[in-house]
Automatic annotation (TrEMBL):
Source species: Podilymbus podiceps (Pied-billed grebe)
Gene Ontology BP terms: methylation; mitochondrial respiratory chain complex I assembly
Lineage, opening ranks: Eukaryota, Metazoa, Chordata, Craniata, Vertebrata
GO molecular function: protein-arginine omega-N symmetric methyltransferase activity
Catalyses which reaction(s): L-arginyl-[protein] + 2 S-adenosyl-L-methionine = N(omega),N(omega)'-dimethyl-L-arginyl-[protein] + 2 S-adenosyl-L-homocysteine + 2 H(+)
Low complexity compositional bias, start-end: 8-35
Name by which UniProt lists this protein: Protein arginine methyltransferase NDUFAF7
Length: 444
């Protein structure tokens, strides 16, 4: 917790943030804002009461600290309590829209597994699996390609902080047949998938055993806490969350009166923006993935909405598929910020190669979504199903919906892209196969 900062100045509205009209179902792309909310004066949520006590005792907190509390506090955090992914929740994600999405991602892993010489063992590690739909669709692909994978020892490892969501995942993937706190493992739960593959649950990536692994993070990094900074005449100041002195039980943004350790450490000297968001937690996790891939092999696929170090104020809240003020009724709404892929790339520290970010519609097109849609349309006889298939394709691919705002980004061992002895003997080896999605899909 930062030291109390009495007399912090109110935050001026950020002149750079320009809201865009949101698309209806996907979590869209406009700036913070939204409707005022029940849970105002007199109706403080348990989380708000907890934060008010904390702020009164120790003064303003960073946005990162606020976001961490609101999302993953063990008692009252949004993901801990409900984690509303899906149509009946607060936001819908691509795997929830269409099975084709997860199937194509499953094919991406198979294609990389082949390109890397079909290692005998691999772990699929998913960070923030939500309802477990994406893993379920991937496992269906693995089961359809069982003859190809028959000699490979595959296991699934899910990193999930929310007990509520891990229950939903267990039901979806194993039919609920799981063992809690297995003694022989670092996992907090284990089970066997409907297709016979072992599944383990962890709270932290560091608990996942080492070994050749494919990593997956879909709409995970955007949920990690961010620090926010504002350029002022006196230099960079960190945005903090404080109690509004004018309105009882209401929170407001303020600026730190002087620079903080975070302003010193996270702002690059060459920064040209006036407002910057940084997630050091995202940086630490990507660093861990890069170290693990460098040491044990594998690949990571990250899909999220984001930018390449250009956007400013993207912090926003979602509740019931609508924008929700980020400081109202904390714990009852999803809080999120665009992923800064340039920061993730920097934090790999050159341990792995990186590809992307590439737009979702380009990635899925390269993965053969058009052909897959044609096959599904031909196999379905009723017009309602065909209509549904076309509609979900449009949601995923339309540049105005999810096609342009979501991007794919990958970490791969350097030798996957460049022969290690290329400099000495440039013509000695056959060319390396392109990485599917970022280039052509070749399944040989
Ligand atoms: N990947 C899913 C869900 C995205 S929602 C989908 O696309 O549908 C974000 C997920 O990350 C939830 O499962 C949430 O509980 C989990 N999560 C959030 N913060 C986390 C953290 N710090 N560590 C592990 N999981 C986290």
């Amino acid at each position: 917790l930062p030291p109390p900062l009495p007399g912090a100045a109110p935050l001026r509205p950020d002149p750079l943030s320009l809201p865009t009209a949101p698309a209806p179902a996907a979590r869209p792309f406009s700036s913070a804002g939204g409707e005022p909310e029940a849970g105002g004066p007199g109706r403080a949520t348990a989380m708000l009461r907890h934060l008010l006590l904390k702020l009164r005792a120790t003064g303003p907190v960073t946005v990162a600290e606020y976001m961490r509390e609101a999302l993953t506090n063990p008692g009252q955090g949004y993901y801990t309590r409900r984690g509303g992914v899906g149509e009946s929740g607060d936001f819908v994600t691509s795997p929830e829209i269409s099975q084709v999405f997860g199937e194509l991602i499953g094919i991406w892993y198979i294609s990389e597994w082949i390109a890397m010489g079909k290692p005998k063992v691999f772990q699929l590690v998913e960070l923030g699996p939500g309802r477990g739909t994406l893993t379920d669709d991937i496992l269906r692909v693995f089961s359809q390609l069982a003859s190809l994978l028959s000699k490979c020892d595959v296991s699934i490892h899910l990193v999930e902080v929310s007990p509520k969501l891990s229950e939903i995942q267990a039901l979806m993937l194993t039919g609920g047949k799981v063992q809690s706190n297995p003694e022989d493992q670092s996992a907090y739960m284990k089970g066997i998938s409907k297709t016979g593959i072992p599944i383990f649950w962890y709270r932290d990536i560091q608990d996942v055993p080492p070994g050749y692994s494919f990593y997956l993070a879909h709409e995970f990094f955007d949920a990690l806490p961010i620090h926010k900074f504002q350029r002022t005449e006196k230099g960079w100041r960190e945005v903090l969350v404080d109690i509004d002195p004018e309105v009882p039980d209401q929170l407001r943004f303020v600026l730190s009166p002087s620079s903080t350790p975070a302003t010193e450490n996270f702002i690059q000297p060459e920064e040209t923006r006036d407002h910057v968001e940084v997630s050091p937690e995202a940086g630490v996790i990507i660093q861990r993935l890069a170290c693990r891939i460098e040491k044990d092999g594998g690949a990571a696929l990250v899909a999220d909405y984001g930018h390449d170090g250009t956007k400013t104020d993207t912090f926003r809240g979602f509740r019931n598929h609508k924008l929700h003020h980020v400081l109202r009724a904390p714990g009852t709404a999803d809080l999120t910020a665009d992923v800064d892929f340039s920061y993730l790339r920097k934090m790999t520290q050159g341990r792995t190669a990186t590809l992307g970010p590439i737009k979702q519609r380009e990635f899925l097109k390269n993965m053969g979504i058009d052909l897959r849609l044609q096959v599904l349309l031909q196999n379905s006889c009723d017009t309602a199903t065909q209509e549904q298939l076309r509609h979900s394709y449009d949601m995923l691919m339309n540049p105005k919906k999810m096609g342009d705002c979501f991007s794919f980004f990958a970490l791969l061992p350097h030798h996957r892209l460049v022969h290690s002895d290329k400099k000495q003997k440039p013509d000695s080896k056959s060319p390396l196969p392109p990485v599917a999605g970022f280039g052509e899909l070749l399944l040989k």
